[in-house]
Amino acid sequence: QVQLVESGGGLVQPGGSLRLSCAASGSIFSIDDMGWYRQAPGKPRDLVARITSGGSTNYADSVKGRFTISRDNAENTVYLQMNSLKPEDTAVYYCKARLKSGRFGYWDNYWGQGTQVTVSS
Question: pLDDT (tens digit, 9 = 90+) per residue, 88-99?
Fold first, then answer.
């Protein structure tokens, strides 16, 4: 079975930085896209950033220029460097990976449990 484990969340002041990590483990054959999503109270979960296996990236307009997504394919890990954080960035951040795993090697989306990011003075 597959597990995604996030780390790096916490409390930071406006203008500060955090680096989130998400490592996928288990019986994984291949990983395609990986991404970060976030969900603030009372709002739907939406895409923050994603990165393909080839390194192509996509960002939400609200974080463009401040956040950087990257991945280490050898370690099945995706990162999100968050700079110039704003209070509106406060949310639970979830890691997602589209990967092939299991007995039959099916493609599916897997999610981490989320890590809280709070930007406040």
Answer: 999 999 999 999
**What is the distance of C-alpha 78 from the center of its chain?**
7
Residue-wise pLDDT for 5-41, tens only, equals: 999 999 999 999 999 999 999 999 999 999 999 999 9
How far is it, in rounded angstroms, from Cα 60 to Cα 120? 21
Work out whether strand 77-82 and strand 18-25 pair parallel, antiparallel, or are unpaired: antiparallel
Q: Which residue has the higher pLDDT, 103 or 49?
A: 49
Handedness of CA 90, 61, 71, 5 (dihedral sign): positive
User: What would the DSSP string read from start to end of 63-104?
Assistant: TTTTEEEEEEGGGTEEEEEE-S--GGG-EEEEEEEEEEETTT
- The enclosing H or E element of 121 equals none
User: Which tokens is 33 given?
Assistant: 């896209």
